[in-house]
Amino acid sequence: xxxxxxxxxxxxxxxxxxxxxxxxxxxxxxxxxxxxxxxxxxxxxxxxxxxxxxxxxxxxxxxxxxxxxxxxxxxxxxxxxxxxxxxxxxxxxxxxxxxxxxxxxxxxxxxxxxxxxxxxxxxxxxxxxxxxxxxxxxxxxxxxxxxxxxxxxxxxxxxxxxxxxxxxxxxxxxxxxxxxxxxxxxxxxxxxxxxxxxxxxxxxxxxxxxxxxxxxxxxxxxxxxxxxxxxxxxxxxxxxxxxxxxxxxxxxxxxxxxxxxxxxxxxxxxxxxxxxxxxxxxx
Length: 283
Known about the structure:
Layout: H1 2-28, E1 32-37, E2 42-45, H2 47-53, H3 57-60, H4 65-68, H5 76-87, E3 89-97, E4 103-112, E5 117-124, H6 126-149, E6 151-157, E7 162-165, H7 167-173, E8 181-183, H8 184-188, H9 194-207, E9 211-217, E10 226-236, E11 242-251, H10 253-256, H11 263-282
């Protein structure tokens, strides 16, 4: 009998320790934890929940989820409850109102507990969404600038021998817009004097010779040659070994078809370009 009592106390102590650890995690977790009934009335919250919403714990226990989602559609709670009852969980992102009236965004991950209570994990995602929107706008500006300036950017991975090309680079070379990685053969097959251009890349990697070229390409989706300029720099890894080459290109065909400031250079480039066009048509 003594042994039975001892074992029972060990079990009770273990349960108590487990509950204390769980409570400590609940109270101090970085995410907001809410426990509510199926109507959204809060029954327990942690410190992060107060920090996210701006309400004190006692204030939160006197309101419900509906009070925080005042700007959300009226049928949200019905949808929320139905999904919980149907699937046992809910995962979404909504806007909510802090106590000071500021409108914010948060993600909600809710699970239905066995006693018809709901545990919700929330995280304020306002800044994250603002950063993502800013990145989206900057990316759109970057693509427009590449298109207007007829420029592109590329990167060569020395280990894999693959090229990455920006949207502008893919446009200039006539590559499929949905692709971003290309083999060395795919890129260099578009270059008229591929051996010279390839050697310039090798010289940059092995000898760090300046890479500042002007050469002709035949875009994959065209039959007429184009003249492009390309500059690049070598990138090393943390151990100092060459790892990548980062560069930019610009389509200067229209500029080179006009006489530039240096008449001699202009005639040479224009003559070579016209000669190549003639040869290309004959073939």
